[in-house]
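Lab channel / #folding
Pinned by the channel admin:
"Please post every new chain as: sequence first, then the structure tokens as a reply. Keep commentary short and put observations after the output so the thread stays searchable."

First post following the new format, from NK:
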Amino acid sequence: MKKLFIFLTFIFCAGFVFAQTGAQLVNKIRHNPIKTLQPKKEMHVFVKDGEEVITNFESAYLKSAPKIHIVFARQTEQERKPIVYIIADEEIDKAKIQAKLPAYFDKYFFVTVKLEDAEENFTPFLTRELLPYIEVNYPVSAKPQERTLIAKNTFALNYLANLPELFEYLQNAILGFDYSSSLPEIKAQKGLNLWACGPLENMAALHKSLAANNLVYLQDFAYSVTKKGQVVEPANLDFLFNKEGRKITKTNIVQLLDTLDLSKDFAAPFWLNLTAKGGYQLSYVPQSVRISPPFLSWDKEQGLFTVIPGATAGKVKVDGTTEFGKKFKAKFNLIDGQK
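Reply from TO:
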């Protein structure tokens, strides 16, 4: 069930398209795909109703030839569909997509690729082999704003680390993290459209990094904080393309500790859970807070309050205003456990 979270978060689409050769498609469409690169060796392709399965996609960059599913959207004359690339450590086929997110059938093409975390050359495989092959052989859009990547863990980190290069190909991304991990240095630009979910440390660091690149929460990115052992709520594709639905209608404070012992090195995780107009469940790590009296320090990169040296027992109030105009406030009780 846990393995499916990224896919529930992100899988959609089906329909039926007759298999055509790359040459036939190129003759029919008016868009010139990016550089064409065919696999070096013969592939095994199985055609189903609304789906093709490639069992041996030969790659010059990967350690093994991955298995790929191409799930079709219903095609109209000379219309190129948006496309979603799902990179996973588990095989995802049409049946799983159809069962979890039937509403997205006929809207998107889906390409799912099973890869092991040990694969290190993810970026060149994606940009030089997979995308060119798909776009020359299937009627899908090659516009960066109409391509979406869904990935988690190693591949999510790879996307963030290589954003300057990958942004030219994939401006939409849904990223997931099963565990806490250090984020790479992120260099992002306006036009990025990102959703992420994972532990507080990851989401807090991601927010700080993207904000440092002048990206704005809700406008350019959003995320959901997951607690240990929690089943991740799916973020659907609609969030990425529904700006109106991002308006926040409800906020709830998540304060895992409200009492801190001065004699111990406690840290108190803190964030807001949000409900958006479109029904999306989001989280928000405040980027600034007011603390009175100033006996706590706030680390926005980790989403933690800690007691400062010299603090005394008593009540501490914190409050602030989010970038989207919602106010919040909370209280902490500082005690001296040695007395």
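NK: Residues 1-40 have pLDDT under 50 and may be disordered.
TO: also worth noting, Residues 253-335 form a domain with the Immunoglobulin-like fold (CATH 2.60.40.3440).
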